[in-house]
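Two proteins were folded this term; both appear here.
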Amino acid sequence: MLSSSGKTVAFGVPAIQHILSLPPPKKGKGSISVLVVAPTRELAMQTHTNLAAVSSAVPDLKSICIYGGVSKDDQKKLLRAGPRIVVGTPGRLLDLAREGALILSSVSWLVLDEADRMLDKGFENDIREIIKMCLPLPTTSLAPIGAAGSAAAPVARMVSPTRVLSSLFAC
């Protein structure tokens, strides 16, 4: 099993490469390209610290960490600075998104860090809502593969390896 920093590097480096392949965000539009959702404040903070270290060599690549138990106003101020990466816990991410302070429509890379723990903690509905707020996936359908039951919905959403985890929750 990878250490937490090893896991962060494993998804962080490709996420940063993804950001670098995108055009700069348009003024007035959402700037967030990568969203990392973590089950706890501690894991969110640790993941953010590790991502910040990995991305420190990239000029002007801002990342922030959002979680409950602290001032929303301070976090809203950080969001207005235009981060490209946001790491946070489901509850606070949804609070800020519902208030219009966190715009997720430009998110094109979603990481559900320790998704099993989030499901164990009862965050399934929150995760589903967060996924729906992110950049819509192409509507191209793929033929169902394998498994009994209706595999068409998740398979249709598996347009790239970066979306496999989110596809599990979109059924």
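Next, the second protein.
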Amino acid sequence: MAGFEAIASQYVEADVSAVTFSSIPSTYEHLQLRLDWRGTYASTGIDGYIRFNSDSGNNYTKHMIYTASTGGTAVTESTAESTVVSFGTTGSNNRMGEWPVVFLTIYGYANSGVGFKPSFIHSVLEKTNPYNLFGSSMWKNTSDIDTITVTTYGGNVLRGASMALYGWKSS
């Protein structure tokens, strides 16, 4: 059957340091990770990040376009990052109703020998300064992705965060 199939979902019942999806089957063409994020606020506004197969080296590249309700657009690029995507809030703390929603699509995750090209969409539904972050990234590794970890910069994934991993087949 073509389309998306649920692989795993997690609802955080109590604060934890990370959420990991492991033993991801290689039977799909692509993956999609959907996050309704709740995390400890960092002073930079970047709360959380995603890594593949526990790779914490500078083995990811990112290209992002940022737009905000306050106007202006920014474009950033990096060729030596330690995460697939970073995300967070823009306020001074995680006020109620100001949580990011993240969609990460991972194309060809089980094609050994091919660098992976995930893309992501990140929206912060914030009362004072909502924004969208669109971009793409690449993991500079040819291994199959069998583990995805979602964690924070020195804090916790908070109770109420929910995450789901889907497999995608075209036929």
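Confidence is low (pLDDT under 50) at residues 90-96. The longest strand covers residues 3-11. These notes refer to the second protein only.
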